[in-house]
Amino acid sequence: MSARGFTLLEVLVALAVVALALVALVRASGLSADALSREREVTLATWVAANVVADSRIEGRFPEPGRSEGSMRMGTRDWYWRLEVQATDDPAVRRLEVAVYDDPARTRPAASLTGFAGAP
User: Fold this and answer.
1) Which strand (E) or helix (H) includes residue 116?
2) 8-118 architecture in CATH?
3) In angstroms, how far is CA 17 from the centroid of its own chain?
4) Which is nearest to 82 in space by CA: 93, 95, 71?
5) Going by fewer Cβ within 10 Å, which terminus of the chain is more open, N or C?
């Protein structure tokens, strides 16, 4: 009667395969968490930009061409925005371009949005 079972080599190969699979799963989980965090940041920055456009529209006066900057708290952090108002071919319409940054130096925009405002 011969003994049946796995050899030491077969067990080591199986453990190596399982270890590689676990490493791949941990890496995929980390990448997924990073993507989710980035998506959250972009969503918050886009909401800030939409708020800046909405505030410009409901201000009660027709926005004059030029640039303005400010900050707004959204979520758990401060966001920094830059609004550029440009004239269009129609004198009763202004183009509103908002860039939102996650740092006060305003080096790289996290999101941007373009809107339009009409004369009241």
Assistant:
1) strand 109-118
2) 2-Layer Sandwich (3.30)
3) 37
4) 71
5) N
Distance of CA 59 to the CA centre of its chain: 27
- 111's tokens: 């999101």
Structure tokens at 67: 């640039």
Q: Where are the domains of the chain?
A: 8-118
**Tens-digit pLDDT profile for the chain (120 aa)?**
667 888 899 999 999 999 999 999 999 998 988 888 889 999 999 999 999 999 999 988 899 999 999 999 998 899 999 999 999 999 999 999 999 999 888 889 999 999 999 987
pTM above 0.70, yes or no: yes
Long-range CB pairs of 31-36 (<8 Å, 24+ gap) are none
Dihedrals phi, psi of 75, to nearest 5 degrees: 70, -130
Greatest Cα pair distance in the chain: 98
- Per DSSP, the residues of 7-65 read -HHHHHHHHHHHHHHHHHHHHHHHHHHHHHHHHHHHHHHHHHHHHHHHHHHHTSSPPPS
